[in-house]
Amino acid sequence: MKTGVYPCYENQFQVNTAAAEAEENLASIADCESFSVAFDNGVEEWTPFDTEGWRRALMTGKGVTITVTGKRNVGDAGNDAIAGLAFKNGRDVEKTFQWTFPDGTVVKFANAVINVKNVGAGDATGVAPLEFDVMSNGKPEVVNPA
Question: Residue 47: helix, strand or coil by DSSP?
Fold first, then answer.
């Protein structure tokens, strides 16, 4: 287990590369360059009479979207698994996706929706990109290091 500050590249992502989602074969995704995380927190607010105008709040829902940019790496199992979803739809774009933090924490998203946004399009002299969003689809499993 690591402590202290760390470079972002120590975060790692894995995706299920098995043909059937019922099976699990997690593989890293080669050539990811950057990522951002957006938490969509559903917060309900209300102002009852007894709080003298002060608002109360309760978080009632949650969602996570991880946006990843990288390069298309043909032949890498994880990269191929993501790129292979570009022309699919519905339940066919659901994959188990795992985020491993530098401290050993693992967040596993079962049936995450993989929204491929770019697969190979760019400047003639540029390296082909792979860009996608991973959207939570239900509550993830969070395993903290021992």
Answer: coil
Q: Name the residue among 135, 91, 88 with its Cα closest to residue 113.
A: 135
The dihedrals phi and psi of 81, each to the nearest 5 degrees, come to: -65, -40
3-state class (DSSP) for residue 51: helix
Helix-strand-coil split of the chain, %, nearest 5: 10, 50, 40
* Domain covering 8-143 assigned CATH 2.60.40 in the classification: no
pLDDT in tens, 39-97: 999 999 999 999 999 999 999 999 999 999 999 999 999 999 999 999 999 999 999 99
3-state secondary structure of 61: strand
Closest of 59, 68, 55 to residue 40, by C-alpha:
59
Q: Taking Cα atoms as reference points, which of 87, 112, 84, 137 lies closest to residue 13?
A: 112
- Residue entry with tokens 């292979």: 84
